[in-house]
Amino acid sequence: MSSVDEDHAQDTPVRHRWSESARFVPRVVVQPVQRFMDTSASGALVMLAAALAALLWVNLGSAQAYESFWGSEVRLAVGSFEPLHLNLREWVNDGAMAFFFFLVAMEIKREMVSGELRDPKAAALPVIAAVCGMVVPALIYLGFNAGGPGGSGWGIPMATDIAFAVAVVTAAGDRVPAGLRVFLLSLAVVDDLGAIIVIAVFYTAGLSLTWLLLALATIGFGYALQRIHVRALPPYFALAALCWYALHASGVHPTLAGVAFGLLTPAWSFLGPSAFRTYAGGLVREVDEVYRDEVLSHREYDVTRGAVRDMRRLTVDAEAPLDRLEQGISAWVTFLVVPVFALANAGLVLPDHALTAWVDSPVALGVVLGLVVGKTVGVFGATWVATRLGIATLPRGTTWPQVLGVAACAGVGFTVALFVSDLSFDSPALDEAAKLGIFLGSAIAGVLGFLLLRLAPRGARPDPAAEDPGTPAP
């Protein structure tokens, strides 16, 4: 805290929190950590450190201990009823990551209401790019493996790992315009939805239609509650939990529940600025009328306490639920959920000849080229064609070299690709080759995307005064 802040604190009755004080522990320990967490690249650095720790754990430590730990079973049971039986890695990938997708979906919802995706042409661009970014990698893979023993793995290079891809873009810092980051988020969500559909149709034998319909019903009920302006959050939490369980039981990846309820979260406040100003001003005047000195009478205390309580309700209603929820879970997702996800999934055993072995395997070669070349060409090419035809528009302030960098980042396919690999092959040798290709392809795509974004020229910054916020939608 600066001396100016300290002087200001002495001149006002507002007391700073302990973490913001000039005491030794907050100043030396807490505040530097807070400053690090506030930097744009901090989450990416923590996640990449967790991924590196997983690699070191497996390759320099004990791969068996790593798999044993993350394969530990955690059961949720009530008496003889056991609704969930998952290992630690599944709890992270299916459970905790639902909060990550919830956060991403809320960010996309905000952009749909008052940001980059408000324009239908801008919203169409990530969908078009995602579709081509799935088709081209699959075709490249089939070019090396069609008719062979690895032909069933065509779905492996299709998906973008949204957590790792966003971490790479975030590490590039302010070199990436906000609109381009939203483009990647939207593209990755559509990409993952497409991958989940591919898994459900081509790689899942026991899809339960009953549970899937129940999940859709919970989403519909949540939408109905929103339309009748139900403000209490517990009903939505209960519906989201039921939707998650129904999707899990249906055989569809349950993180879709996070996407669905993130998009359902209202991006508008229940109390507009004008109404807030009117009501809050009335409460302040009410306190002024009874407040005479520092010692309050019983009546003055009751009036002040009631006004403070009403003011708290007003501030809650004046803030959009989306903003409140995003602020509440953002740090937890960034610095806990995502790093644990990286630690649980990045532990791949690298052979001694990892840098050359993939060239001799059609499966590994198809995966690497599908992720690095296919994703980049598919996303960038579709974006270029769509904008040239006038059916979509680039995010404001974006240059084509920046689009190329983000297209390369879309080639970071990790978790979903590993999942598809496990479903694709019965042969351990083919599965290991695919996983080697996933790791190398994702690493190359991530480094390539980062370098392209850091070297890309900046576009013209959009003029905030020229923006029309439009009318918020629910």
Automatic annotation (TrEMBL):
One of its GO terms (biological process) is regulation of pH. GO terms for cellular component: plasma membrane. Keywords: Antiport, Cell membrane, Ion transport, Membrane, Sodium, Sodium transport, Transmembrane, Transmembrane helix, Transport. It catalyses: Na(+)(in) + 2 H(+)(out) = Na(+)(out) + 2 H(+)(in). GO terms for molecular function: sodium:proton antiporter activity. It is a multi-pass membrane protein. InterPro entries: Na/H_antiporter_dom_sf, NhaA. It comes from the Bacteria. It is found in: Cell inner membrane; Cell membrane. The chain crosses the membrane at residues 41-60, 122-142, 154-173, 232-250, 256-276, 329-351, 363-387, 399-421, 433-453. Na(+)/H(+) antiporter that extrudes sodium in exchange for external protons. Belongs to the NhaA Na(+)/H(+) (TC 2.A.33) antiporter family. NCBIfam families: NhaA. This is Na(+)/H(+) antiporter NhaA.
